[in-house]
């Protein structure tokens, strides 16, 4: 839509264009049968709970990319994931801010939490919505950095939080670090619970065999070095990984091994029986 040259009329058109975009996006999502959460802003508190809160500190005024703002603190339903108005309820305030921006008036910075590279609005939903509608790419913000146990990478929709939450719980039960931590990945969040139980059982047998207590960190490290890495290596040589992650392949053969052979050992005979079972 071309600008009229009259700031008030252009501000009104900004709002109408943003509302139209939101309605069309919602219709498109319904027609494609996409999950309901693809157009919902990520709730800050659910994200931090899933990742594990460690602490926070304020770093002050920064210029941030609008595309990095993915969520909100107050679960606002007035805007969708792309900060387009979801109803006419916000129109008066929205157009007032749009008019001020078009007249070049000073707009105060928004306030956000930063988690990794993502930002969550504490205050300033309308200002972000107006800035996006007017084609801006950045905005000034007062930033508070929040540190979490897990990296927020990979979070796009609300449903992604389930995987993060189960992974956080798994790593509390099996406190892997460094390369080991990065290597043990599964796609189904329920598999983290199953794998956690498996590692704990492995640790229990280890303590029985050695007749001494091992803490969780020691069990986790020894399981990774003495069980996971060698087994995954054998599975790679035998061509049994397939399209699974290493951890998913390990879980599958560990379950099959015990179900078919009733043993906890690993050797060539076990691998051959598993290979013949797969074929």
Automatic annotation (TrEMBL):
List the InterPro entries hit by this protein, alphabetically.
ParB/Sulfiredoxin_sf
User: Which top-rank group of organisms is this from?
Assistant: Bacteria
What name does UniProt use for this protein?
Chromosome partitioning protein ParB
């Amino acid at each position: 839509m071309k600008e009229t040259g009259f700031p008030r009329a252009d501000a009104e058109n900004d709002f109408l264009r943003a509302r139209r975009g939101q309605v069309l996006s919602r219709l498109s999502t319904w027609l494609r049968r996409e999950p309901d959460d693809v157009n919902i802003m990520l709730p800050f508190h659910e994200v931090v709970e899933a990742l594990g809160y460690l602490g926070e500190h304020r770093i002050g005024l920064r210029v941030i990319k609008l595309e990095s703002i993915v969520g909100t603190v107050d679960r606002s339903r007035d805007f969708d994931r792309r900060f387009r108005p979801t109803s006419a309820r916000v129109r008066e305030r929205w157009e007032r801010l749009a008019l001020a921006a078009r007249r070049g008036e000073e707009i105060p910075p928004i306030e956000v939490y930063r988690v990794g590279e993502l930002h969550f609005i504490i205050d300033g939903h309308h200002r972000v919505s107006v800035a996006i509608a007017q084609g801006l790419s950045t905005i000034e913000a007062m930033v508070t950095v929040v540190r979490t146990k897990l990296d927020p990478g990979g979070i796009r929709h609300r449903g992604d939080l389930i995987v993060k939450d189960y992974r956080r719980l798994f790593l509390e039960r099996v406190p892997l670090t460094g390369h080991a931590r990065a290597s043990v990945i599964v796609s189904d969040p329920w598999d983290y619970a199953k794998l956690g139980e498996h590692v704990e059982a492995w640790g229990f047998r280890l303590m029985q065999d050695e007749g001494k207590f091992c803490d969780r960190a020691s069990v986790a490290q020894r399981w990774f070095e003495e069980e996971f890495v060698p087994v995954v290596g054998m599975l790679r040589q035998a061509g049994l990984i397939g399209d699974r992650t290493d951890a998913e392949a390990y879980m599958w053969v560990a379950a099959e091994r015990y179900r078919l052979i009733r043993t906890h050992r690993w050797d060539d005979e076990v691998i051959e029986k598993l290979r013949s079972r797969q074929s």
